[in-house]
Request: fold
Amino acid sequence: MDLAVKKARLVRSPARYLVSAMLAGVYIGIGEVLMLSVAGPLEAGHSGAVKLVEGMVFPVALTLVMFAGADLFTSQCMTMTFGTLSRRTTWLDTARIWGMSLVGNLTGTVFFALIIGAAGTVKSGPSAALLGSLLAAKEVETGGQLFARAMLCNMLVCLAVWMFTRTTSDGAKAFMVWIPVFAFVSSGFEHSIANMSLFSLGIVNGQASVGDLAHNLAFTVPGNIVGGAVLVAGAYWFSNRGTSKSVKAVDVPEQPSLPAVDTVPEQPSLPAVDTVPEQPSLPAVDTVPDELPLPAADPAPRTLTAV
Reply:
């Protein structure tokens, strides 16, 4: 919930928030290009491990978002809903965050696709072939299929974000991100921001149109909202309502408590010392000693007379 409050404050500076959301779009694009580059040759060789490899490498995208710090629309579906249901933020804050993160994410994915187009990384070869295959598969899905797959996708993504915040070590955080993202990619679920990146790459390559992107987002964005806001945030808020668990759901991980330390340690007592030690008594001395008796002096000597 505290994270939702921070997001609501951050959006008061639209430029800063949009840049953060654009970075998230770029990071998702990096994951897409990595996936196309690694799994493309496997697709060309008709390998059965294509889905497995796609799921193994794409989690790099969300790992960058979580560790580097960026604002991804799909995770905000959970975070802001938690904050609003807990009355720490408002529905207006939630709508503002969702709208600005969508705009920022789309801008970031388009910007990254233009750079990749200039670099020619997925212009031809197995990567371009896999890109075309993925786009063709998404274009034939019905609106109901897109919505349901998007709902399941963001349930897994938001669980990844939630578990990330509930662990303390970096290794555990990375693993908690990897598991759900691997599950949604390998299962073929629909992530609206990943689709923004995929269709943007296709538009730059001439393999898709803006209309294709708009049609996909019309169903995947609402599906992602339901998956994050209802299946994760709403469900856990309701089940933990009135307990302390609901507070930890989207908070920064709780720090381990330190043992209490007294402000001033108790000093060991020292033996009492008299202020002035008792002096040994000396023998009494008379102030004036008795005078020694002198012998009596003879009287004046006798005078001899003449005879």
Remarks:
- The domain at 2-248 is CATH 1.20.1080.10 (Glycerol uptake facilitator protein).
- The chain is about 65% helix and 0% strand.
- Residues 246-264, 287-307 have pLDDT under 50 and may be disordered.
